[in-house]
Fold:
Amino acid sequence: MKFERYPMVMRHPAEAPAIVSQWNEQLQRHVPEHGQAAKFQPVTVNDADQEAYHAAQGYVGSGDPQSFESAVSNPLPGNYQFQEYPKWVGQVLVHSKAEEDALGGTPEALDASTATAAPPKRQAPAKRSYRERTGAAAPASTADAGAPA
Structure:
């Protein structure tokens, strides 16, 4: 990965975010009609001409090769010391090698032994007819099914 100057975001020192509403002390609530539009929002430039145009309006570029290199390489601080403990082994937090050995087994085995079982799958209820669900009596014959009672 190498540094590329464009596209670059430029920001204005007088940048102000949009105000959707303001607090009204008298009403003790937010009042939306007193909002205000954002001022000097960040702009993205794609070439030197656009950069020069926005720089003339007071915008400042935010990228340089040294800060990019620092962010990408991310060197560890000089006084950094790796600490192995505390750490999670399976679903147990251990604070020393002795605690880890006392658990026994590999982390994979511990994960499998301490994992909760999946809940049983729900089965769909058996389909029942309308008569079974409501307890309605069956008609004596099909001819009687449409006849008024």
Notes: The chain has a mean pLDDT of 78.
